[in-house]
Specification:
There is one protein chain. The chain has 79 residues and is mainly α. The chain has a domain of 53 residues. It contains two helices and no strands. It is elongated, with a radius of gyration of 19 Å.
């Protein structure tokens, strides 16, 4: 039995808010989102009264930044 193949739907450029971002812009967007979230984790960890929370806040900021970066650059029409 042969596998079933689904037709590929082509998405016109007008369906994207900013159009398709060039590779360099996607990389810059990922780095900025990650830096902002790590900085927010650093501030949250430094503002706490328990010094043990600083590494946890940095790890949380990094994880949130990675998720935010992935959401920002993902193409909603491809999965």
């Amino acid at each position: 039995m042969s596998p079933v193949t689904l037709p590929v739907r082509r998405v016109p450029e007008e369906d994207h808010v900013l159009g398709r971002l060039p590779r360099r812009h996607r990389h810059v967007l990922v780095v900025v989102a990650l830096a902002v979230c790590v900085a927010a984790g650093l501030v949250a960890g430094a503002a706490s009264v328990v010094p043990v929370l600083l590494p946890t806040a940095l790890a949380t900021g990094t994880a949130v930044g990675m998720v935010a970066a992935a959401v920002l650059v993902r193409d909603s029409h491809h999965g």
